[in-house]
Amino acid sequence: MADTNNLQDRVLTITRTFNAPRKLVWEVWTQPEHIAQWWGPTGMETRVEEQDFKVGGNWKYVMTMPNGQDFVAEGTYTEIEDFAKIVTGANFRPMTEGVTLSNLFEDEGAGTKITFDVIHPTAEYAQQQKDMGFEKGWGSHFDRMQEYVSTLA
After folding, report:
1. For residue range 62-90, what is the model confidence (pLDDT) as tens digits?
2. What is the CA radius of gyration of the chain?
3. What's 127's domain CATH number?
4. Domain of 136?
5. For the whole model, what pTM was predicted?
């Protein structure tokens, strides 16, 4: 049985590089008018119901699925380093709860690299999320973000 306290076994990571300056990528990730344009898997529309972007501030995004059902994503920011790092607790109801999202923003040439870690409470939960399609679901988010950023850059 895996050691559920081993961080490496509890983290799922996606890394993407965007052809845009870090300031723009940061704004797209943090400002409600931008978030509503790309957040969520392909086929979902997103409403930003709350975005209190500060340590201790809450965020809540409601994604509407093609069948009309709402999917709620929400959390509380625990760490923010301007233009470099965002850490937040997160729940994605009804599928994923009690995770931590850590986003690192770094310059990569003229572009911006994001390292997106989702930290799960246990290794088993991380594996379950991976098996449910973590890469495909979050990959779709980042594909939409890339498309949106390219219209602004």
Report:
1. 999 888 889 899 999 999 999 999 999 99
2. 15
3. 3.30.530.20
4. 7-152
5. 0.91
